[in-house]
Predict the 3D structure of the following.
Amino acid sequence: MRDWLNRTLTALAVIVAFPLTIWAALAIYFDSPIASLRTFAAILYLVGALAALALLRRKRRWPIVAYIGFGLVSIWWLSMRPLNKQDWKSNQAKTASAIVNGDRVIFENIRNCDYRTELEYTCRWETRSYDLTNIRGVDLFITWWGSPWIAHPITSFDFGNQGHLAMSIETREAAGQSYSAIRGFFHQYALAYTVSDERDVIRLRTNYRKGEEVYLFRTTIDPALARKVFLRYSQRVNLLHQHPEWYNALTNNARPISQCPPPKLITPARVLTGVFCSMARWTRCYTRTKA
């Protein structure tokens, strides 16, 4: 019985060690600070792991070596910090910030781009003042492309005669970068709260990007709750303006901020896609129509 238990535990340890070893190698490949050595370092790590497997297989110690290697890589990886000062794409060159004074909120660096094509545009960065007593509600835009399990939410706050202010949680990409789903699990992109004129961030997706479907959900959020959600977004915007964070497709992604309690049932697939957990909260609690 004890021998069977030891074999089972060893097998489980080996099964877990394999994906951890692959992740560590990929982390070295994608995030090593010396670009010319990334491939070599990742291959060297895998070769070392395989050599340890060959040498220690009979002694059942290989998983220990794999876990130690994973731990060392994780410590290095978690110590990495994103920087605000980089050569960013021009439509992500600045980060927004908010000054809250009672019922008045002044937003700096609101993006308002004029698009000629998806990749050709002229961006203006504006400062606007909003009166929180004018807030009427919140709209939620959901965009789909390709797989039905991949979606992106955009939250838009209705300030009546002062217009709509949209907030989109995105990757902040350096010049020359493009989004990759695999790279999104590593330290390749900063997290960005893009605060923009609604005509900027929505029209980009409806008029210029190909293959995207945009749906507008009118919510039943009352002005008091809309104000709370808006202020939570503003706090998050200011935090990222001062202390940038890494985007991660699994743990730190485009989930909209919600004041609603989580739904009772969240499927594993929705957890993995990230945005669906919070999107489910919005649609379950607040959605009344779709346009």
Q: What stands out?
A: The chain has two domains: 2-78, 90-290. The helical segments are 2-31, 38-56, 62-78, 198-208, 223-242, 268-273, 275-285. The chain has a mean pLDDT of 86. The radius of gyration is 23 Å.
